[in-house]
Amino acid sequence: MTKSLIKNVVILGGGTAGWMSAVLIKKVMGSVVNVELVESEAIGTIGVGEATIPPIQLFNSVLGLNEAEFLRETKATIKLAIKFDNWKELNHSYYHTFGAAGKSLAFCHFHHLLQRAQNLGHQSHLWEYDLNYLCCEAEKFAKINTQDPILEMGYAYHFDASLYAAYLRKLSEQMGVKRTEGMVNDVKQHKESGFIESLILKDGQEIQGDLFIDCSGMAGLLTEKKLNTGYEDWSHWLRCDRAVAMPSERFENTLPYTRSIAHTAGWQWRIPLQHRNGNGLVYSSHHYSEDEAVNILTDNLESPSLGDPNFIRFRTGRRRKQWNKNVIAVGLSSGFLEPLESTSIHLIQSAIVRLLHNFPHQGIDESQVAEYNKQSKIEYEQIRDFIILHYHVNERTDSQFWIDVRHMDIPASLKHKIKIFKENGQLFREQEDLFAESSWLQVMMGQGIQPRDYHPLADGVPQDKLFNMLDQIKAIKQEPLAKLPTHDEFLNKLCNT
Ligand code: FAD
């Protein structure tokens, strides 16, 4: 592998991935490298991707963004959870919140205590002990100023993705990122090493670089079209292969959560922004035609649409190597997992952070590339398993799609996780799994898995003490609610002052 100093970083693509990469690399490495971004307005961006998960706060804070300004600029709202309707069975709902239920004892997670209490006749469910859930149901939100970890609320945002990209573009350019408008229609490679040397634009301009970030979207212009990296296809597990998106007018209070509503062969998202709802249907083209998909979506909008349907085809899976030669694939060029748990923007963030940790300023080293690829693979697979869980564990009998995914063979890693939880309620977090135990717990229980046993430590608490403890925890969790503003009041105050 050729080793030459990395001075010029070239980013191909100006979607969410391109601008997130540009702004963070410039912010962190701006004194060491030059950053140039090439994008083509004629091609445009995918134009979806509006729900996020809590680590986005870290991204924004590294950039030094003011939260109120960010909310205003991107028409954002607060996201405390995803509410899943009809996933376990028709007319059943559960939440996957960014919070955690109850309070654990040393070595004994809260749900073991709760399960014992339930076995003894205590009438309560997991989510009643989760402040995020209580706020979702009450449609309330404000940051709680507390030292008590039991009252911490994880949250993320829903935002207008094109406004977010425009906001990051403005910041990037202020910091000195060079933006070049133009369509790339050729790529020069080094004869022996195969490293990319430059991008040739339609107007003849040549953009040279030492390291290329491929943010060209699903086409994967550098990583796939030029370097033939290959793709690992996961569509036998995740069988949806299309989406149709359509914004609509706002019609209800601003919910502090995303809605995910399962249909007979896919699911619909509803994302409340300040100025509109983002909607879409993710579906299997083996089950719905385009017309059927649009009809299902429009029948379930509950308010007038604000645009024409935007159809998107995808193939679930990942690029075999996220880093190949001197090209790092970030965003949709690196793979695709459906937006059920809003993980794509996070994958962009973690890919750039991983690159920054392993930045090859002295030249590209093969072992560093291998490590980067290993970590990326694990991350993709863990998220893949979490998404498959939602499909696989279901009790629906009303459509062949749901019956088939219930009976499909699943990855061994997920099988193992489900088996252990079913046996004794144990959950484990491996190698920095993005989703903590509380996430796995909520989805496993929400989808209908009830462990056969609980941890024996729960037996160590006498019944009256256990019941008292649960009542106390519930009271502590409920206490802040009365004082919290509604989500709408919170947004109005922050965005209009
Ligand atoms: P794109 O937006 O496609 O950008 C590609 C860029 O490359 C464009 O600027 C284009 O001009 C440029 N380009 C391409 N070819 C050339 C060329 N030849 N010359 C010059 N420029 C070129 N993620 C979430 O986190 N949350 C969600 O809720 C969510 N919802 C989604 C819903 C759907 C239906 C889909 C499909 C995705 C969703 N995602 C979501 C994923 C999210 O949209 C993407 O991860 C994100 O938008 C990043 O896209 P990108 O920047 O990689 O690609």
TrEMBL record:
Annotated InterPro entries: FAD/NAD-bd_sf, Flavin-dep_Halogenase_NPB, Flavin_halogenase, Trp_halogen
Positions bound to 7-chloro-L-tryptophan: 79
Record's keyword annotation contains Glycoprotein: no
Binding site for FAD: 14-17, 184, 332, 345
Protein name: Tryptophan 7-halogenase
Keywords assigned: FAD, Flavoprotein, Nucleotide-binding
Gene3D superfamilies: FAD/NAD(P)-binding domain
